[in-house]
Structure formats: structure tokens, C-alpha cells
Amino acid sequence: MKIAMIASEAVPFAKTGGLADVVGALPLALEDCGHDLVIIMPRYKCITPGKFKINRVSEDISSSAVGKKVKVYFIENDLYFNRDGLYLDKNGDYEDNLERFAFFCRRTLDLLKEVDFAADIVHLHDWQSSLIAVYLKNLYAKQPFYKRMKSLLTIHNIGYQGVFGKDEFAKLGLDGSLFNISGLEFYNQVNLLKGGIVFSDFINTVSPTYALEIQRSEFGFGLDGLLSQRNNVLSGILNGLDYSIWDPNLDNFINQNYSSASIEEKAYNKADLQRICRLPVENDLPVLGIVSRLAEQKGFDILTSCLPEICKMGAQLVILGTGDKKYHQDLKALGKIYPKTISLNLRFDDPLAHKIYAGSDIFLMPSSYEPCGLGQLISLRYGTIPLVFKTGGLADTVNKDNGFIFSKYTKDDLLKSVKRCLAAFKDKKRWSALINNAMACNFSWEASAKKYSQLYAKAKEE
Hints:
It contains 17 helices and 20 strands. The chain has 462 residues and is of the alpha/beta class. Helix 1 packs across helix 17, helix 4 packs across helix 5 and helix 10 (300-311) packs parallel to helix 11 (325-337).
């Protein structure tokens, strides 16, 4: 099947978040399934010949390649994309983001025809490429080349929708009749993601539970009603994990490589982490690791309020990340009170992240909502037991056999779960079983690609 993967970012070329990881990894797994793919994305300032092998295709199109023979096309426009940031700068979102990504979507569809790539499926990602579904059903509907193309929209986080003032609608080049409640109008504004949801043939999210959650008002960010109306074409496919990067048996960042067959070697990584973080090197003390953006959504509102009690339970905490100033201040204050218990690292540090996954006993991820989640997948691979809130992808990947879950988003429920987890840590037989179950989990991109292949086939048949 011919698949055009269309997104605003992709590893290794440009990245601000998990979207780039998905678009960088999924096409390679799909290629292994036998599909013919191209990736199309903007040519940002950071995509230079000095970093990547770039070929000239036409005046405003260049290309590179990933995998065995997946071609990556870059759409060039210095006015729109030759900037330091992808979507924003220090002053906030770029004011012309609607124009930038409307141009990207139109140029992408024209490019497919220019290179004669008659895609069976155009796989769209988030609001930045949602307009392609709108254009296919409207501006390009009568052109034979596009007539058989089906669209799949993947929603990575419904909190980001591409909402703009109604006066910008005219810049989309669409008939004014589409600015209504059945089209792109959203509380008297333009909502690009809504347009994608309305006009895409199929819609999916990055975990099965999240697909259900966004149909409820507390998670739908105003689009829950529309998603409920379209639930017959809405599904969830869990993101995969790149095991070539996240494998404790091959990880160059950690002190001692290990596998499920040599799990005793994990202790060397724990001692290394404790030394680096200036914590007492004691194997019998449970180490709780956190690698996260420090924000309310990630559970820091309830976590910071109960950290003093956790510190008194005889555990150590290693925290890595940056985020809201409030949580920086709260955690710094707690770090001064419990210097032998809390190691606070307010920065981005990839090597340290690897060491935390390998050296911790428990991985804390109390997010209030999490479309898929990556941290829990990594921790499972490293035999570090996840403790999570029951939401989104966390609910789909963590259970009583491989971790700990709390189902009420409260400080008290989190504390109870931590107590249960620490009690289990002391039971060596039970803890060993949890580690074995965790490391036996398979959340590879291969498994996800097979499910996407099935969804593509279903879309093509419609």
C-alpha cells in the first residue's frame, strides 16, 4: 500500500515532542511490513546539509531518506519556515501559524501529484496537517489524481488544536460556507483540528483508552461531542518504543548492561545513580525515579503535596526535568529539607535519563492525563516498576502484574499506592516476579505497525 506520512516534525530532522518520535519510527516499521512510503514535512532552519544528506528536487522541494528507501520530502519557504523555532519563539506562538501550515498542506497535496505518488492513504498528524483532509474533500475533490485517496488523522494530544481568530478563515482558501458549526467554526473561531476530525475518513489516537477518554467532556477539550458523533471511525493504537535506543543490554549511557537473564547486574546501575546524585549508596533503599516535564498535567500538583510523607517512608527520589516555575520552587525547597533523600536535576539531560531508567527501582508517572506515555514503556523495558495514574496509555500498558496503578486522582490515593509499592519492594520474590513480567512486555513499533496496516486496509476499502 502507498502511504504518505505528513507531519510538522519528524526525528531525526526536527523535534519538539513525541510527535517527531512517532513520525520518525512508524514509517520504518511500516516499510518492514511491505508498504511504500514517503514522509512530507516543512524544511525548517535546523535542517541543513551540514547535518543531513539533502538532495534538490525542484525549486522549493528538497529530499533526504530514512530506513531502506523511505524518501523524505521537505517543503521549503523561507518566509514561513526559515526560523529558529518550529511553532513559537520566546514571545509565544508565531502569529502566522495558520498561514504557515495552510501553505504546507496545500503544497503537500500538489507535491504528491508532482512526484506522481498516488497515495492510498494520507496519514495526517495533529492540527498542523489536518487541513489536508479538508482540502481533499473540498478543493481537490474533483481532481482524478486525488479521488481515491483516503485520510487518517492521528491525534497525539487533543489539548493542541490550532485555534485562530475567525478573521483568518479567508486565508485558508476555502468556501465561506465551511465556517459553521458543521465545519471549522469553533466558538466563533477557526479550529484546524476540528476540520481534520470532520473531514478525515478515519481518526485514531495514540492509545485505546485515550480514544475513549476524549469522547468525555473532562478530556475532550470541547471536541468530545464531535468525536462521539464520529466514534464509528475513531480508534486507538498504542505508540511503540524504539528498542534500538531503549535496551538495557545495549545502552551505552548506563554503568552496566543487563537483561532479564542477568537482572542482578541492575544493582550496579542503582549504585552508580546514587553516587552521581549524591545520595547514600544503599541497595536496600528503594529509589523512585522521575523523568518528566514539571507541570500539573504530569501529576506534580498532587505529588509535591505528598513528597514529605514519601521521604519519611525510607525511599530516595531522583527527579529530572524542567517546567513550571512553581514546581521548580516547591521541589527546590523540599530538596533543601531532605538533601539525602531528594536529588533534583532541573535540566534536560539524556544520559542521566537513561541512568534513571536503569538505576531506579520504581518509576513515578502520576499524570492526570497521558495520551500514550513513553516513560512507562521505557521503565518496563529496564525492569523499573512503573507507578501510574489510571489514564490513557498508562492504563493500557501498566497493570497489577507489571506495576502499580491508582485510580482516584488524589494525594491520598497516590500515597496509598506508593505504600503498596514500597511494601512489595521488600518482598523479594514478588518484586522479582514484577521485574520479570515488566521486561517481558513487548511494545515495539512492529506490533503498532501491524495495527496501522489493518486500519489502512479498512480505510482503503471504505
